[in-house]
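testing teh design pipeline on a random one, pls ignore if ur not involved
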């Protein structure tokens, strides 16, 4: 009698990543490091363990791994897919969106899993690298059209969720009332069948609410919406605890949680913080545990999120020190960019809480020079200005003011020099946003791009 073959297992759950019978890369696995390889094929899912069984290609050994330690690896099956993999995945910095889409048009079977994944990957990478100060609206529209087609036509439900989140990301780049509504709808409909992307869904929904919390508070059913957010927070927290989320979603959980905790103060009834001070400590301590899992190459993010958690715990001095370290790393690596402006905003908040009016005014003065980098900064600056004006000027002993700026990188693209101390580089006398180690660097930067940017600043 012929032996009956065991039927292929299907992943019944739709709240974990669908890696069954796909190639993956494994992180944080000693076995993979010992055999100089971290690529494997997923063979089985255990509901009891909440882990996948992965057969490592390097030595054929099988190991049980949590979903959060796996990443899908696009494994090409023919010459067409190999070319696509090399161009889109391995040489992603050398290809633009139009060139990439042309390659997909030449495929004989573009609807297969791997090409669809790479198409979403190309769209998302194109959105990340898009310069919003010189935004190509036509390219943005093309990217959104591609993602909408995948959402409408794809038979891979986990990739539909990925496409929805990339579409939400593109909508978030141009904030309008209509776009916020679309983002909320895209994410809300994906809560149950999230395929491990719940932390990103949670963060996007919270972000939509946080942009206009007072506006949401005035709407009918505001308390119910807040309770929905609260339930979503605890549901996402459970996923983080069980490690059944898509890798790299920890940062989205951190961002979403920090925003959610701030939103709660706008709701008079059913507030999260009504529970008691012990709950505040417990939840923020859990965020610190999540922070410990961030990879060492995200050191700047570690300082930033640690500072925000300390701020929630009302430890403003320590929060200020961490924001300062974050600013130093950002300024020395990239010069005066949007994230340096974010550091100034957070430092202003700390100085207000500490009652240091003159330091808060200094930081606000610096922050105002960054308002062109963020369309939402105007109301934030106005709010900080009002709060600083309302601060009491006490009769405390006069303290010597610290310099609120940190050593920065030379603004010339071809120069990698960093200030040995604050004030060593001279800034552009017109916009005061760029810093140079020499007149030669200033002239080069002026000719290459700053002549146009200076007017905008």
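output:
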């Amino acid at each position: 009698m012929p032996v009956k073959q065991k039927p292929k297992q299907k992943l019944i759950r739709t709240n974990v990543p669908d890696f069954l019978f796909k190639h993956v890369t494994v992180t944080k696995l000693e076995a993979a490091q010992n055999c100089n390889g971290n690529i494997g094929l997923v063979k089985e899912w255990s509901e009891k363990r909440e882990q996948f069984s992965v057969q490592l290609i390097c030595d054929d050994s099988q190991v049980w791994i949590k979903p959060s330690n796996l990443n899908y690896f696009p494994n090409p099956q023919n010459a067409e897919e190999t070319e696509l993999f090399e161009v889109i995945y391995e040489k992603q910095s050398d290809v633009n969106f139009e060139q990439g889409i042309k390659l997909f048009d030449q495929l004989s079977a573009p609807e297969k899993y791997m090409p669809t994944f790479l198409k979403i990957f190309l769209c998302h990478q194109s959105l990340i690298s898009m310069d919003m100060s010189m935004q190509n609206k036509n390219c943005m529209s093309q990217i959104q059209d591609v993602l909408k087609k995948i959402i409408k036509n794809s038979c891979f439900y986990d990739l539909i969720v990925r496409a929805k989140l990339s579409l939400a990301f593109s909508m978030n780049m141009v904030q309008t009332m209509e776009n916020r509504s679309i983002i909320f709808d895209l994410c809300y409909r994906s809560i149950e069948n999230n395929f491990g992307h719940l932390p990103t869904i949670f963060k996007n929904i919270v972000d939509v609410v946080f942009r206009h919390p007072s506006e949401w508070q005035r709407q009918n059913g505001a308390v119910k919406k807040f309770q929905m957010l609260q339930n979503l927070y605890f549901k996402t927290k459970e996923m983080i605890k069980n490690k059944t989320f898509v890798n790299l979603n920890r940062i989205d959980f951190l961002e979403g949680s920090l925003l959610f905790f701030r939103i709660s103060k706008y709701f008079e009834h059913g507030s999260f913080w009504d529970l008691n001070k012990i709950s505040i400590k417990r939840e923020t301590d859990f965020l610190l545990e999540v922070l410990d899992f961030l990879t060492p190459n995200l050191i700047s993010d570690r300082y930033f999120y640690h500072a925000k958690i300390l701020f929630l715990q009302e430890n403003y001095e320590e929060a200020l020190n961490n924001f300062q370290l974050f600013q130093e790393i950002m300024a020395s690596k990239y010069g005066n960019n949007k994230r340096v402006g974010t550091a100034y905003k957070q430092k202003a908040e700390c100085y207000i809480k500490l009652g240091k009016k003159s330091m808060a005014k200094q930081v606000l003065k610096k922050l105002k020079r960054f308002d062109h980098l963020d369309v939402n900064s105007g109301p934030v600056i106005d709010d900080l200005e009002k709060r600083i004006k309302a601060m009491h000027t006490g009769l405390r002993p006069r303290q010597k003011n610290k310099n609120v700026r940190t050593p920065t990188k030379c603004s010339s693209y071809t120069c990698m020099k960093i200030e040995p101390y604050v004030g060593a580089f001279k800034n552009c006398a017109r916009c005061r946003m760029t810093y140079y180690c020499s007149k030669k660097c200033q002239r080069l930067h002026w000719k290459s791009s700053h002549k146009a940017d200076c007017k905008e600043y």
